[in-house]
Design brief:
Blueprint lengths: L15 E3 L2 E4 L2 H12 L4 H15 L9 E7 L4 E6 L31 H12 L9 H9 L1 E2 L2 H14 L5 H5 L11 E2 L2 H13 L2 H4 L2 H12 L6 H5 L4 E2 L3 E5 L2 E5 L6 H11 L12 H21 L11 H4 L2 H8 L21 E6 L5 E7 L9 E2 L4 E2 L30 E5 L2 E8 L4 H15 L4 H6 L3 E3 L4 E5 L4 H9 L3 E5 L4 H4 L2 E6 L5 E5 L6 E4 L1
Parallel strand pairs: 17-18
Antiparallel strand pairs: 1-20, 2-10, 2-21, 3-4, 3-11, 4-7, 5-6, 8-9, 9-14, 10-11, 12-13, 14-15, 15-19, 16-17, 19-20
């Protein structure tokens, strides 16, 4: 990979290079992270301050009631953290009898939020600064207000149309009866109060104290299943990573319940094609990637669940070399196919990355799932609850079938690349089912085709939908789109400002010898700052 002043894609941004660097989806959050490093903190402190600030300045994608995952290099070893929550004890199949799926919004979609536990676990094990210091920028933004950006204002308005009637939403997020417009200052005293309580008690207020009591009371008042006992039982898990080689690099992902395994499967399938011989923006290169990700995603939808419940088909089965070879053989190099799940055993989100001069690199993601999540907001707290319960299946034969204490299938995934046992790139791509597909696109563009992080971020993206459907950004070359259609792909064109559809990517790539280079995504309010 070489840094270049020439960009073949519509962007005026250049990659940012520095010894210490933070890249996130909002400038104010990025500044919060960089300020921690300026105070002597490390990459973990920076990542956490950024994540906490994002709950305030980008409530359209995450909040205190989110889930979270992280992969980090501590200077010697790679670690994976799963801080996604589990289903409440009363989340039984009988509770949802007569329904075709779990509700998308409302208390019926809420599982235990895990983001706060991620902040605590990472700070305890790897942080340098006092835990309360990480909250100071976010509390300031919540208490004194921050100007809402055009991107966030647009997403906020869209959410207001869907969620205004959900318990507590309007009182917190629709001041004066409407969503904030671009340039409006938004304040939330309740959010500031919650952050202070979490900071002062190192998370105990959220899982065992006053905030837990307020969350549980709100759930009970509105027919929710979540209780104080469910919150107190939660814990984040140091789960390690699962990995797959692609030539000289190794992609690491969090093990299921997340969809990161689909990115590993996609790369494993592509490694057995002629992708290496193709131009990055050719129709044939797009075709092979689309077909590989269809195969991987169909299997993820069919088999991925909480790892403790993947008994019939395991992650190892899905990553088996022989199985991926059989899936690769199903690809027609000239024609699009509508794949189904295979037989591996015979018989909306915020992402950020931080890296420091000591060599520590952090890949961190937290999300409400769909925008503001469930739409439920606990009064006077600023806490919007995620809707991860919607990720469960009501099919009793599926490994992802709803059950108490079980983690649902998750879309949010942090990515991490290694080369020869050394850290290379911490990265992520936001946007629901776009994420695993985005990981594959970023790996190929930076590692196979040598694009720098900003170039890879700016390149036109695609995502698999249903059947033969593929959504492509309008910045993709018209001739390429015409060729893909001739190959049988059902192409839908969408503008790059579809932040959920195509995600917002953040990449930090290690430079040879010293320092890092970062790319940040203009599809959202992406901002990388280094020093």
């Amino acid at each position: 990979m070489e840094l270049s002043a020439h960009h073949p894609y519509p962007s005026r941004r250049s990659a940012v290079a520095a010894d210490n660097i933070v890249s996130s989806s909002h400038p104010l959050a990025t500044q919060a992270g960089v300020s921690m490093m300026a105070q002597g903190g490390n990459a973990v402190d920076a990542a956490l301050a950024t994540a906490i600030a994002l709950t305030v300045v980008e409530p359209t994608g995450n909040g205190i009631g989110s889930d979270a995952f992280a992969i980090l290099w501590d200077g010697q070893d790679l670690h994976g953290l799963n801080a996604s929550g589990r289903a409440p004890a009363d989340y039984t199949p009988e509770r949802f009898a007569g329904l075709d799926q779990i509700p998308m919004h409302g208390w019926g979609s809420v599982t235990v939020p895990g983001a706060v536990s991620a902040w605590v676990a990472l700070s305890d094990r790897f942080g340098k600064l006092p835990f309360p210091a990480l909250f100071e920028p976010a509390i300031r933004y919540a208490e004194h207000g921050f100007p809402v950006s055009p991107v966030i204002a647009k997403l906020w308005q869209r959410a207001a149309e869907q969620l205004a009637a959900q318990p507590g939403f309007a009182d917190t997020f629709l001041p004066g009866g409407r969503a904030p417009r671009a340039g409006d200052y938004f304040q939330s005293a309740g959010h500031a109060r919650s952050l202070r309580l979490i900071a002062e008690t190192k998370g105990k207020a959220f899982y065992e104290g006053v905030l837990a009591e307020e969350i549980a009371a709100h759930a009970q008042a509105h027919g929710g299943a979540l209780t104080a006992a469910d919150l107190a039982a939660h814990k984040a898990d140091w789960c390690g990573t699962i990995a797959r080689d692609f030539d000289a690099v190794t992609l690491h992902e969090i093990p299921p319940n997340g969809q990161g395994i689909a990115a590993l499967m996609g790369l494993g399938i592509l490694s057995q094609t002629n992708i290496r011989d193709l131009d990055p923006d050719s129709a044939q290169a797009f075709h092979l990637q689309v077909e590989a990700m269809k195969l991987a995603l169909r299997d993820a939808e069919g088999f991925v669940a909480d790892a403790d419940h993947m008994t019939s088909v395991t992650a190892q089965d899905l990553l088996d070399d022989a199985y991926l070879a059989t899936r690769a053989a199903e690809i027609n190099v000239n024609t699009a196919s509508d794949f189904k799940s295979g037989a591996p055993k015979r018989g909306g989100t915020v992402y950020l990355s931080a890296a420091d001069a000591s060599g520590m690199m952090v890949s961190f993601i937290q999300s409400n799932y769909m925008g503001f999540g469930s739409g439920v907001v606990v009064p006077n707290t600023g806490i919007s609850m995620q809707n991860r319960g919607f990720g469960f299946s009501l099919d009793p034969s599926h490994q992802n079938h709803i059950a108490p204490g079980k983690r649902p299938f998750h879309t949010i995934i942090p990515g991490f690349l290694m080369r020869d046992g050394a850290p290379l790139m911490s990265f992520g791509v936001m946007g629901g089912p776009m994420q695993a597909q985005g990981h594959v696109q970023m790996v190929l563009r930076t590692q196979l085709w040598g694009q720098d992080p900003q170039m890879a971020v700016d390149a036109p993206r695609w995502r698999v939908t249903q059947g033969l459907g593929v959504a492509c950004e309008t910045t993709m070359a018209p001739d390429t789109i015409s060729t893909l259609r001739a190959m049988g792909h059902d192409i839908t064109l969408e503008t790059p400002d579809n932040a959920f559809g195509f995600g917002g990517a953040q990449l930090i790539h290690r430079l040879p010898g010293r320092g890092y280079v970062a790319g940040s995504d203009p599809r959202k309010d992406g901002c990388a700052i280094g020093f």
